[in-house]
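Side project, low priority. Logging it here so it doesn't get lost.
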Amino acid sequence: MASIVGYTPKAGIEESVPVWLKIDWNDEVLHNIYRDWATYYSNRRRETFALHYYNKALELNGLDDDTLYRRSQAKRKAAQIEGALQDARAASKMAIERGRPNVAMSQQICDALFELNRMEMSKVEMHNQKRMYTGVKAKTFDMRLIVIEDVIKDATGKACAEFYLKNQKVAKIVNAIIRANELIDERPRWKILKEQGKCDVLSIPEEEEEILSPLEAARRQRAFNIAHQTFLNEAWLDVRFMKNLNKNPNLFLRQCKYSKDFLEMFSRKQYAIVRKFIKMIHSRSPLYLASYLKYANNDLRKKSRSAFLNRVQYQTHRNMNADLKKIKELRQKKDLRALQQYVENIMGEYYVIKTQRVMCWKFEFINEVYNTLALALTEQYYVPKHFKPTSKSMFLLLRLKEDTFKEVRPFVFGDRSTYQDVDVEDQASLKAKQLIARMERRILFADYSIEKCYLYHQIASEHFKQGRHDECCLNARRAMKECKNCNSWIWAFLACILIVKSNTTLYKVERTKEALELGYNIAQKLKNPVLIRFIEACIYLTDELFKKKASMQTDRQSKIPDRQSNRSFDRNQMHM
C-alpha cells in the first residue's frame, strides 16, 4: 500500500485523481478508512504515517474513544509518552461517561505514568483504576502492582543508600544545580544582565561553550559506554554509531540541499527516541543497583576494584617504558618529523587522561619525554664542517627553505578549476588550524609548566609553517616566559630560535640580532659548546648583513646630493 501522506490533487487535466477520492464518502466511512490505514502503519512500526492518519480520523470524529486509545498506543511506540498519557486519559474519560469503562484504557494510563518514571503516581493510579473493576479484570492490575513495587524497592533500597553515602558531596552539588535550573526569572533580560554587570543591550544572547578537560571528556565517554553496555549488551555499539552519525559531515553534505535537512532532523529524532528509552530502563534498574547486585559483599567489591587498579597501573607502566624506548630510537635515527608526531599522539591522546593514581611517576615521565624531544630538536642546530659564509648561509644554518614563489597558473575557461568551490580550504592549513585549536585547549588544563612550554612552542611552530609570523613570535615569547617557571632553558632556546627564524624570513636584521643576543645568553646557561658556536656563527652572518645594509643606505644617501648638484649645474648652463 503506497503512502499518501500530505497528498493534495493538482488542478488540471494531466493529473489523475485517485479512485477513492471520486466516491462521495460520508464522514463516518472516511473516519473508519483513516483509522484502518493508521492501524496498518502502526502494526508495521511506521508511527509517523500512523499518527498522521489517526489525526485525520479524529478531525472527522473527535469523540471516538477507540481511535484515541489507538493513537495513544502509537505515541507510546514513538516515545511521545506525554501525548500518549493525555490521549489515554481522554479515551478513558469518554468510556466512563458512556457507562462502559475499558480495562485496556485504564492500564494504558498506568503504563504511561510508569514509562514517564512517575512510579509512585503510577501505583496510586493503579489502585484507583482497580476499584472500578471486579473479578478477572481487577486481577490484571495485580501483576503490574508487583512490578511497580519491586522497581520502587530496587531504586530506593540499600543500593541507593550506599550510593548516596558514597557520593554525598556530589549529590548536594547536583541538587543545587537542579534547583537553580528550576527557578524561572520572568524579568526582562536587560534587567537580569544589568544586575550581573554584563552588557544589557545584546540583541542576541551569547551561548557559552562548555569546555571540558580531556580527563572529563574521557570520563563522560566511559560512563556513556558503561551505561549502554550494562543495559543493551552488544547492541550498545549501535547506539554509539547513531551518536557519531549525528556529527558525521559525510552524511549531511552541503551539496545535497534537499536531503541534508531531512537526514539531519531524522537522525537526531531517532537518536532522541533511543536515548529516551535508555533513560526509562535506567530509572527502573539504575546503574548503582547493577553494581550492588554484582558485588553484594562490600569486601569482595573493594578487592575486585583494587585488583583492577593494579592491572591498569601495571599495563600503564609497561606502556611508559615502551614509549620511552621508541622515543629514544627515533631520536637516534634523527627522524624529527616522526618523533614530533609520535610524542603528540601519545601525550595528547593516551597519557593526558591518566591520573597520578593510575600513572605512577607521571611528572618524571613527562619531563623525560619533553626533554628528550627538546634535545632532539636542538641537535639539528650546528655549524657544519668547512663552513663558508655566503649570502644564503643564514638560511642553511637555520634549516630554512629559500624564497620560493608559486608559479601563476594560467586561467582556462571551462577548466575544472573554474567550478571549484570558493569556501574550500587548503587541507594543510585546515589540519594546522585543528592542531592549534587542540593544543590551545590542552594548555587550559595542563598541570606542568614544561608541558605548557612544549605546547606554546608547537603552536608557534605551526604558525611559522603557515606564514603567520606575528602569531609565531607571540607564542614563542609565551613559551620563553613559561620556561622561567620550570627552569627549562632548552625550551627557551628553541623558542628563541623560532623568533630568529621568523625575523630572518622577513629580513628584519635588527630584530634578528636582538633575538640572537638573547639566544647566546641562553646557550651560555646551557653550557653547550655546539649551540654557542652555532649562535656565534649566526651573529657573525647577521653583523655582515647589517653592515652590508648600512653601506647600501649610505651609498643611496650619498648619491642624492650628487644628483641635486648636477641638476642645478644644468639649470645654470641653460640660463647662461
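Brief comment: The radius of gyration is 37 Å.
Revisit when time allows.
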